[in-house]
Amino acid sequence: MMNWHYNAEDDYYIDPNNVRCNFKRYAYRHDTYGYKRNFKVYEAEKFDENREEDPNALTQKRKRQKDLYQSTMGIFQGKSKNKPFKY
After folding, report:
1. Element (H, E) at 22
2. Which residues pair with 11 in a beta bridge?
3. What pTM value is reported for the model?
């Protein structure tokens, strides 16, 4: 996602294939060490501006692409109830 254009005002990305990925929800996973990792889930828009199905937005099984983005830990550090962040 480093080479994608990000719009902070509306919280979406545009990938190099001009597919817009909108913010869908927050998610978390626990890694092998037991630490909780927070992510933002972005989902590709299935249709383009002309209301035609965009093949770049779909996987091989015809489902919409989903991308996980692990944001900076500063956003979630405030929600940790004053516990130090563990790496």
Report:
1. strand 20-30
2. none
3. 0.66
